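Input record, target 12 of the design panel.
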């Protein structure tokens, strides 16, 4: 079997960096190599110039080779909603998002958007995401079909919602269960596909549908669960009205046994003390979405508070409430959010978060998130000199941490030289 050897400056994390001088938290080779065979990493280390006769060398000297970037919360049907003007979350949903999602009853439209979605992820260096489709089963089929064509490791599922949405976007408690179960049978474990049980959020699900989601979680305990919680004050008040006998918003998901190590909870901005404790105790994941939270005006995520509770944290784009597909842009805005909070996000931790950290958040760190022998060869190559202003700044950069911070602060899709999915270069093959 033919092998591919990537040469470049190789960076991979071993654990979450606690400070800029925490060199034990990562491995870095100034002139390194990553050898790939059959979609897997078979060796990593210092480049020595020796290779087997059937090895192709791709030279990325001077560029940074990292694990592919990971996005644990994004909405496929919102590509044509991004950048829509609205005052708050519920206005934005009702004015734009629910209108757009109705178009996914059309299989051709769903297929077209799914293809564009994955091309955009690849363009920005993202190789794995946890995605929401629409209520339509065909949107799920389009999503996983397009992912399979590109051999991308993806988590996704049909949203379940049987109230407080347009009629064309409502299922029933029973049909939501049936469609989800059929989707699991069709897609979960096929290639690199992971199906997620996806009650959109408590506002759009009746108690009967939440019970059906609970049944699915009991029947398929190894599946991911994804939903939203505590994003917006108006939303929280509405959720409390709909479930008045429960202690708080997170308590709704707790009541229906939907919390656990593979539960991805979008936003988690306005958590009570009790909710922070439950989040940590259940090992559920708070998924921080800074560009979305700023754009919609939902609030500022309190990273250090959750960290002090021992909660697990991921960071995501949340397109189309989020304003960029780029994890670099996402971490840039996250840095600013924490500045306003009086908290710090050093660049080593930021790059850990969008690679190994998010892989751990998604319980996928045995396969992705690090450049290690046996891991899937999902990789990204970054260039901190990708624009004239970045190249000028790099003349004065003399540390790896400052280079990462420049990429995080000023980088975007132009900084992504190449995106490798299971060892195959993908960005250079994109149309246009």
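The sequence produced for target 12 reads:
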């Amino acid at each position: 079997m033919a092998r591919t050897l990537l040469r470049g400056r190789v960076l991979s994390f071993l654990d979450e960096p606690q400070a800029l001088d925490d060199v034990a938290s990562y491995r870095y080779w100034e002139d390194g190599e990553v050898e790939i065979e059959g979609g897997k990493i078979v060796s990593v280390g210092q480049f020595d110039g020796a290779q087997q006769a059937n090895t192709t060398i791709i030279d990325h000297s001077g560029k940074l080779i990292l694990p592919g970037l990971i996005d644990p919360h994004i909405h496929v049907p919102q590509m044509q909603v991004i950048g829509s003007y609205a005052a708050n979350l519920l206005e934005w949903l009702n004015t734009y998002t629910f209108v757009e999602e109705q178009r996914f009853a059309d299989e051709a439209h769903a297929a077209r958007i799914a293809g564009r979605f994955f091309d955009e992820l690849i363009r920005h260096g993202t190789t794995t995401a946890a995605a929401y489709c629409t209520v339509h089963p065909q949107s799920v089929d389009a999503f996983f079909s397009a992912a399979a064509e590109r051999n991308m490791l993806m988590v996704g599922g049909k949203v379940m919602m049987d109230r407080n949405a347009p009629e064309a976007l409502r299922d029933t408690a029973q049909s939501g269960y049936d469609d989800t179960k059929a989707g699991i049978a069709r897609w979960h474990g096929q290639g690199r596909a992971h199906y997620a049980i996806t009650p959109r959020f408590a506002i759009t699900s009746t108690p009967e549908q939440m019970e059906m989601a609970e049944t699915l979680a009991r029947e398929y305990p190894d599946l991911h669960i994804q939903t939203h919680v505590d994003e917006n004050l108006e939303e929280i008040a509405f959720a409390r009205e709909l479930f008045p006998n429960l202690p708080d918003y997170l308590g709704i998901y707790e009541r229906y046994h939907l919390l656990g190590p593979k539960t991805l909870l979008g936003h988690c901005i306005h958590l009570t003390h009790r909710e922070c404790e439950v989040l940590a105790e259940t090992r559920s994941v708070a998924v921080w979405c800074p560009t979305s939270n700023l754009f919609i005006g939902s609030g500022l995520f309190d990273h250090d508070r959750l960290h002090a509770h021992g909660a697990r944290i991921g960071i995501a784009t949340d397109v189309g409430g989020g304003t960029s597909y780029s994890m670099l842009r996402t971490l840039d805005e996250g840095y600013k959010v924490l500045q306003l909070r009086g908290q710090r996000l050093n660049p080593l931790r930021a790059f850990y978060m969008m690679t190994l950290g998010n892989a751990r958040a998604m319980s996928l760190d045995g396969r992705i998130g690090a450049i290690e022998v046996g891991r899937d060869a999902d990789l990204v190559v970054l260039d901190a000199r990708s624009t004239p202003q970045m190249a000028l700044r790099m003349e004065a950069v003399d540390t790896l941490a400052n280079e990462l911070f420049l990429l995080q602060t000023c980088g975007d899709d132009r900084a992504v030289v190449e995106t490798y999915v299971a060892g195959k270069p993908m960005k250079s093959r994109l149309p246009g």
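Residues 67 and 194 are 20 Å apart (CA to CA).
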